[in-house]
Specification:
CATH superfamily of chain A: Jelly Rolls
Structural class of chain B: alpha/beta
Radius of gyration of chain B: 39 Å
CATH class of chain A: Mainly Beta
Oligomer: heterodimer
Largest interface: A-B, 31 and 36 residues
Shape of chain A: globular
CATH superfamily of the largest domain in chain B: ABC transporter type 1, transmembrane domain
CATH architecture of chain A: Sandwich
Shape of chain B: flat
Helix content of chain A: 25-40%
Largest sheet of chain A: 4 strands, antiparallel
Number of helices of chain A: 5
Number of strands of chain B: 14
Chain lengths: 192, 858
């Protein structure tokens, strides 16, 4: 007993330093928080909430050429790209059209609409390279929003505004390609 | 047993209360009487001594006499006390013995009462009658004979003593008693009146509560709390009112008693004092007289109390007996013959059934069912098809016509004739508290223990398979923590399953489990498991004890782990409090932290008092250590552990296993490798000494874990139940080596909970069907027995009846779903209590009659 008291004495006055145990590589939460803070989707979100998101988020790794989200399957989370490239495809009449290519440099994300409602995904997402993603589930988002109901409408607004921007982006991309020869750009590897 | 329930006794509910008291235990009661008479002597004797101490010893100034009389006085008092003690104990014993009989016989009667009786009876009434109300009577029963006897005898003895001292004084002091004899019974009558009302109110109250609790789902769903509260509050207020009056009278009686008691001494002092002054009465006699007067009051009081409790018990007893006063319709056993063995022929001749108000539920039904025929009863709801089924099962009794089983009148049959030949499956069957196995064997065991052998394991498992319960039972088996003695005979099989998962199926199962490996840090196991790599069967290494264990703390210090673990605990506490401070009411947020929601407040206070630094208090540090030991690196995102700490923990584990447990690490390590390569699992040598500790080595069964954990043998990454494909893979592999039966056998011992509340509706139904099929009766009656099952299960049961039991049982099925009817030999169609059509499915369809219409309506 006495021993342990003496032993304790030399470090009990250390200043508070939450990342003590994270010497080897950063703490997962802090790493996630840093990423979320940079995201335009969360620009106006208070730090408290961001911390919660960071804590509740999960890290995923996908190998190059694997499917991340399959069109028509229930999608329960939004993904944030930490590393690698992801392309978004939409299948129409049996042909897959590439809508977007998301890089890691621009802090890209996808699946944000699944935060709002439980829907079957209307697009597929593929890993173009080896990919590291951070996910936030709809359950987590909803649970957090239950706690901050006044933030909810703002969050929805933000998600929709960004969604419109993304749609505009995607439409532009399609319009640019609207010439008959572009259509077989659709990747045959996507057909099942 | 037979002597207790023999038929020459009056009907149970007609017996008077004293029947129970006088019938048995004569020897005990005689013994009690002897002790009582003896005790009387020891109670009078001290009075005589009092007189002599004053009149002889003190008056004559004789010390020797004083010592003698005082000694005798004390001795008698002691013996009086001891006999009184013996009387109390004996009384209670006799009372409780009588109560046991009363309760046993009453329950026997209550269980046999016809179903109709319970339609009108609230369970609350029966429960309160069988328990609390009988208890109150039991208290009275023991002293029922002896108390009045003692009281009268002692009253006479003391009165006699008083007359012996002074007839005049004695006469004077008993003059008050007649007044009491008038006043007190009057008050008592009022008391009885309110007491009767109180019992009725209490019963109504327990019925209301009982109903509310049974219908809690409805109450929650409707938010009808106020309605229910109002319902009870009416009774609460009535009860308050009645109890108030009851106690006013009760204390009125007490007051009257006390008043009369104190009038006595007043007369005594007045008259006795006058006589003593005039030398007509000795002082010693006066003292003895006063004592005697006081003593005489005790038996008097006892008699009054006896009178009260007798009245009380009588009221209660009669109330109980009145509610159960109903004739039992069919005797349990047949008279002078063994129970029938029926072939399964059923005939109804102009059978009718009507309820109290004359409403005819069934009218003039005539039908005939041949042995081994399978028939369906169909009709609109309210057509009487379920009632008909109940009548054939003798659960209800027809009012008109006849029901013949094998040409014999059902009305003349005993319960055991029916039970042996007919099995009925209700729409909402009842599942009893106990294991699945006990519930399965319930029906078989009930029908004559001697006659039918208990089914063998393979028969039970076959039935389970037949009704489609195998998968559920397997799941129960996987979840069972098997007791040590049960593991021993099948340990080899269980370890074989472990090996299959860890070698052959290692790759697919890596999704859900991180295998135990003595040489690897395990990300999905807690730090405690990582450190100790095993567990004790006793509490020695229980998580909650570790922070306070001196040996464990020394071990941590030696391995330089105390400081980093405390720091880790502090970081976890700080971060959790920081992020989740206001979220303590939702488990969801705590999935990433070893802290439990209910601990949040405590840790907030802990950090506050230490100002966010490492606390000084030992108790606070213990809490932090406790927190750190629960940390699971891969699951708890709240913080990240450094690799160097992981290495340190691994080293400490090896130190612990080697030096504290003295485990043969080489053997464990080799065994782990062999497990993966599907080699023979090597038992640990020289391990017998440390039987208390079980390391995570392949040869060891982990007794505190479920079977599933033991088979998976590792830290869980994800729930196995979310991976149906893996489960099927494993089951297929186990079945190949015939290991499945062991798991099923264990699953059969799953405790189903009170009324089977740990089972789903479908599981209960299937269990009930299996239970009925295990009892191999000739006639099976199913009252929409598969209605609550899904389509696949329903079809499976239907197929089973049509194939396996064709030609073996007469089956009567009340069916709602008409698409199941083509499988039956004949169909009976009921409407408004009458039989309107019968024939094969084809005939009825071709006829385009009522049955055809029913099928079209669907």
């Amino acid at each position: 007993m006495k021993n342990s008291w003496q032993n304790m004495a030399h470090f009990m006055n250390l200043p508070k330093h939450t990342s003590d145990n994270c010497e080897n590589g950063k703490c997962q939460i802090q790493e996630a928080l840093a990423l979320l803070q940079k995201l335009s989707l969360f620009r106006d979100t208070p730090l408290d909430i961001l911390k919660l998101y960071a804590y509740l988020s999960k890290k995923h790794e996908f190998k190059k050429g694997t499917l991340i989200i399959q069109q028509g399957k229930l999608c329960q989370q939004m993904y944030l790209i930490i590393k690698g490239q992801v392309s978004i495809y939409e299948e129409y009449n049996g042909i897959n059209y590439k809508l977007q290519q998301l890089e890691d440099d621009g802090l890209n994300y996808f699946g944000e609409l699944s935060l709002l409602t439980s829907i079957d995904s209307f697009f597929s997402a593929w890993a173009e390279t080896d990919v590291i993603l951070l996910s936030i589930t709809r359950e987590a988002f909803q649970k957090v929003m239950e706690r901050y109901p006044d933030m909810y409408s703002k969050a929805i607004e933000k998600i929709i505004t960004l969604r419109i921007a993304r749609s505009t982006d995607q439409t532009r991309r399609l319009i640019e390609k609207t010439s008959p020869h572009v259509w077989h750009d659709s990747d045959s590897k996507l057909k099942k | 047993m037979s002597s207790v329930f023999s038929s020459d006794q009056p009907r149970l509910t007609k017996r008077p209360l004293f029947y129970w008291i006088l019938r048995r235990h004569h020897g005990w009661q005689l013994l009690l009487l002897v002790i009582i008479v003896a005790s009387l002597f020891f109670r009078v004797f001290p009075l005589e001594m009092q007189k002599r101490i004053i009149n002889e010893a003190i008056y004559l100034k004789n010390i020797e006499l004083l010592f003698l009389y005082c000694g005798l006085y004390m001795g008698a008092i002691l013996l009086a006390g001891l006999t009184k003690y013996a009387i109390n104990v004996l009384q209670t014993i006799i009372g409780q013995k009588i109560l046991v009989e009363l309760r046993t016989e009453l329950y026997h009667h209550v269980l046999q009462l016809p179903l109709q009786f319970y339609r009108k009876m609230q369970p609350g009434t029966v429960i309160s009658a069988m328990t609390a109300e009988l208890n109150a009577i039991g208290f009275f029963l023991g002293g029922a004979i002896t108390i009045p006897l003692t009281s009268i005898l002692s009253l006479l003895v003391f009165l006699g003593f008083m007359f012996h001292l002074s007839p005049l004084l004695a006469m004077l002091s008993v003059t008050v008693y007649p007044f009491e004899l008038i006043v007190i019974p009057l008050l008592q009558k009022r008391y009885n009146h309110y007491n009767k009302k109180r019992i009725a109110t209490t019963r109504s109250m327990s019925n209301v509560v009982n109903e509310a609790i049974s219908g809690l789902q409805e109450i929650h769903a409707n938010g009808s709390y106020t309605i229910e509260e109002k319902r009870l509050s009416t009774y609460i207020h009535i009860l308050y009112d009645q109890l108030k009056r009851l106690f006013v009278i009760k204390y009125g009686i007490k007051f009257a008693n006390n008043l009369f008691q104190s009038i006595g001494p007043f007369i005594l002092f007045l008259v006795g004092g006058y006589l003593a002054i005039h030398g007509e009465f000795t002082l010693g006699a006066l003292v003895a007289f006063l004592s005697a007067y006081e003593k005489v009051y005790d038996p008097w009081k006892e008699m009054l109390e006896y009178y009260q409790s007798f009245q009380d018990a009588k009221v209660r007893y009669n109330q109980i007996m009145t509610i159960f006063d109903q004739k039992i319709e069919h005797p349990l056993l047949p008279d002078k013959r063994p129970p029938h063995h029926l072939r399964g022929k059923i005939e109804l001749k102009n059978a009718g059934f009507s309820v109290g108000s004359g409403l005819k539920l069934l009218d003039n039904i005539t039908m005939s069912i041949q042995p081994n025929e399978q028939v369906a009863l169909v009709g609109f709801s309210g057509s009487g098809k379920s009632t008909l089924a109940l009548l054939i099962a003798q659960l209800y009794n027809i009012n008109h016509g006849l029901i013949l089983l094998d040409d014999m009148d059902i009305a003349a049959m005993s319960k055991s004739d029916i039970n042996r030949n007919i099995t009925m499956i209700a729409q909402r069957p009842f599942i009893f508290t106990g294991t699945i196995r006990e519930n399965l064997l319930y029906a078989v065991q009930a029908t004559g223990e001697q006659e039918q052998q208990l089914p063998e394991r393979k028969d039970i498992l076959q039935i389970i398979q037949d009704v489609g319960l195998t998968e559920d039972i397997l799941r129960f088996g996987f979840n069972t923590v098997i007791p040590e003695e049960r593991v021993k005979p099948i340990k080899a099989s269980l370890l074989r399953m472990r090996q299959i998962i860890n070698s052959e199926l290692r790759e697919p199962f890596s999704k859900v489990v991180e295998p135990y490996d003595i040489n690897a840090f395990m990300s999905y196991a807690s730090l405690k498991s990582n450190l100790l790599f095993g567990e004790s069967l006793t509490e020695t290494y229980a998580l909650d004890n570790l922070p306070y264990s001196k040996t464990f703390r020394t071990f941590l210090l030696k391995n330089k782990l105390e400081e980093p673990l405390l720091k880790l605990g502090l970081t976890i506490a700080q971060t959790t409090v920081d992020i989740l401070r206001n979220l303590g009411d939702d488990d969801f947020f705590f999935q990433g932290s070893p802290m439990e929601p209910h601990e949040l407040e405590e840790f907030i206070a802990l950090l506050k008092s230490s100002k966010g630094h490492m606390p000084h208090k030992k108790s606070a540090m213990d809490r932090l250590l406790h927190l750190a030991l629960r940390f699971i690196p891969a699951k708890h995102k709240i913080t990240t552990m450094s690799d160097s700490l992981k290495d340190q923990i691994l080293a400490a584990r090896h130190d612990f296993l080697k030096n504290t447990i003295q485990l043969d690490m080489e053997a464990c390590s080799r065994s782990t490798q062999l497990l993966q390569q599907d080699g023979a699992i090597v038992a640990l040598p020289a391990y017998e000494q440390q039987r208390d500790f079980i390391p995570y080595c392949p040869s060891e069964y982990l007794y505190s874990h479920s079977l599933r954990d033991n088979i998976l043998f590792g830290a869980s990454k994800q729930q196995l139940r979310d991976h149906q494909d893996l489960l099927e893979l494993a089951i297929k592999a186990f079945a190949r080596e015939g290991l499945i039966d062991e798991i099923l056998d264990i699953g059969l011992d799953f405790e189903v909970g009170s009324q089977g509340d740990r089972l789903s509706g479908g599981q209960k139904q299937k269990l009930a069907i299996a239970r009925s099929l295990l009892k191999e009766s000739t006639i099976l009656i199913m009252d929409e027995a598969t209605a609550s099952l899904d389509n696949t299960s329903q079809a499976q049961i239907q197929h089973l009846l049509e194939k396996k039991y064709r030609g073996k049982k007469t089956i009567i099925a009340v069916i709602h779903r008409l698409d199941l009817t083509p499988g039956y030999d004949r169909i009976f169609v009921l409407k408004g209590g009458s039989l309107i059509e019968q024939g094969t499915y084809e005939e009825l369809m071709a006829k385009h009659g009522a049955f055809y219409e029913l099928t079209q309506a669907h």
